[in-house]
Amino acid sequence: MKTYKIAVIPGDGIGPEVINEGVKVLNKIAELDSSFKFDFTYFPWGCRFYTKHGKMMDDDGIDQLKEFDAIYLGAVGFPGVPDHISLWDLLLVIRKSFDQYVNLRPVKLLRGAHSALANTKNDDIDMLFIRENTEGEYSGAGDWLFKGQDNEVVLQNAVFSRKGTERIIRYAFEVARREGKTLTSISKANALNYSMVFWDEVFEEVSLDYPEVKTASYLVDAAAMLMITDPKRFEIVVTSNLFGDILTDVGAAIAGGIGLAAGANINPKRKYPSMFEPVHGSAPDIAGKDLSNPLATFWSASQMLDFFGYEEYGEVIVSGIEELLSTKELLTPDMGGTATTSEVGDKMVEIVTSQIKGKVLG
Question: Cα 100 to chain center, whole Å?
Fold first, then answer.
């Protein structure tokens, strides 16, 4: 039996609640398959840890995480801890230390989900954003000069290396070719005359190796507009760290809301663990009330299963989410229902059990 060692960082706010339901579903799938299992190890890192110890994680936290096959992250952030501390001292340090240079964000209007766009069909919104995840605008390079003085100056540098830019674009081309889909690059070369001109040139260079992939390229402002007015033109999308961060939230808005937004931080070479997370935030206002929406956490679990090679189970989870959304019998208040977090998790376990047993018997 294959054992996958998973580091669980439940994090802050609603993080522990939704992660608990995701773990419940993953354990049930492993139990039903019996050829593999999960070994979960929990780490108490996050903002509460910071208030006690003055740091978001143990000093040797990265060394501890190296021993795992994947990381399952709940949510990070809580009032009283500055956002740049909670982000840079946990999430981003993990992404960078483990070279998780691919961020995968599905933007798909699931069956039963409600789009903010009128007259939109499910097939109209089916994108995969591939976001550069370790450098670019989030490289952390810059300076703060003459702080507090009249001539105060801050410098925030975006760093685009040829290695970093080419590898994310090539990864996107590989996905587009494998799935037989179009690839759209999003930049801002008219205004950012170094970084984005470079990005566009590398995209054109790499495209020569993939003549079978149909491509398009848009400025980020035009892309934001087109995602709303004509979303079906986007299939596979590759873009920089900042643009990917912003546009995927636009994607969440048109594809059912942030409560359905999942993300994967991938180290393609598997030298280090990859990390899977819902991206809805910690929602401290409802923490501890059993009202949080675990659907994005389920979806990120499906991404983990895909990564481990169990795509059929990843599809079962996504199908289960669609069943929950379509029947509307058990949904949390943010989705228009009255169910608790744990009730939704129990129902999801019931659905995946039925689907997996049905496929085996069928």
Answer: 12
- Tokens describing residue 63: 């060394």
Query: What is the distance of C-alpha 158 from the center of its chain?
Result: 22
Strand ranges, E, within 213-324: 215-219, 236-239, 262-266, 274-278
By the 8 A CB rule, do 28 and 348 touch? no
pTM check: above 0.85: yes
Set out the domains of the chain in order of their start, with CATH numbers: 1-105+259-362 (3.40.718.10), 115-255 (3.40.718.10)
CB 199 within 8 A of CB 240: yes
On the 0-12 / 13-18 / 19+ scale of CB atoms within 10 A, 321 is buried
* H or E element that contains 249: helix 241-254
Q: How far apart are CA 306 and CA 29, in angstroms?
A: 13
Separation of alpha carbons 49 and 168, rounded Å: 34
Partnered with residue 107 across adjacent β-strands are: 127
d(CA 22, CA 19): 5
Check the CA dihedral 289-291-292-296 and report its sign.
positive
Taking Cα atoms as reference points, which of 62, 133, 130, 71 lies closest to residue 99?
Answer: 133
For residue 161, what are the CA distances in angstroms to 80, 103, 139, 167, 294? 35, 17, 11, 10, 37
How many CB atoms within 10 Å of residue 126?
Answer: 17
Rounded CA gap, 256 and 128, in Å?
15
pLDDT tens-digit profile of 45-103? 999 999 999 999 999 999 999 999 999 999 999 999 999 999 999 999 999 999 999 99
Burial (CB count <10 Å: 0-12, 13-18, 19+), residue 224: middle
Closest CA to 234 of 214, 263, 211: 214
The answer to whether 139 and 160 are in contact (CB under 8 A) is no
